[in-house]
């Protein structure tokens, strides 16, 4: 490719680059909880019970292979007023995929989600491992907001429910989108930590909101 052509291509790439949302976009003490890699037959219902108990709505980033296994849980998530997010079919690193490959995966995942929860809106897409490549642009073309995060409590290790609660308490910043997990492993500590911190956050004046663009 000639130098000038390459420059034009780079400019085009820059123009096309999607904005990855990492905050609620609201002023004041709002926070958005997001849960990845479910649905899980044990931990997703437990998380839904906790969120219902505290009257909090969250975003669930769904792994297509798990949607196929547990479609009723996707329906429950939607029926209880939470917001759906496409998290790809098989949790592959899409960083090096062509736009066409990404589109085919995202469309297939959306079709599965829509089959499980007819009529439910899929507001967001989150790239596995935060490895975006072409996926942000493709998600926007398909009407989904590319969703990142500002705060990762690293609940996949997992370090104990008390430690997770401490990380949430100490690390929270106004508007933060918080990455947590309800699937892909034993998430009981995450469920417990969320149950602990929601009343604390509310008592301290925090409100629970959705990430921007939802
Ligand atoms: Zn994930």
TrEMBL record:
Pfam families, alphabetized: Polysacc_deac_1
Coiled-coil blocks: none
Keywords: Hydrolase, Metal-binding
Keyword Secreted: no
Gene3D superfamilies assigned: Glycoside hydrolase/deacetylase (3.20.20.370)
Residues of the NodB homology domain: 29-209
Region of interest: Disordered: 1-23
Annotated Basic and acidic residues bias: 1-16
Cross-referenced InterPro entries: Glyco_hydro/deAcase_b/a-brl, NODB_dom, Polysacc_deacetylase_ArnD
Record-given protein name: Polysaccharide deacetylase family protein
Organism the protein comes from: Streptomyces lycii
Taxonomic path: Bacteria, Bacillati, Actinomycetota, Actinomycetes, Kitasatosporales
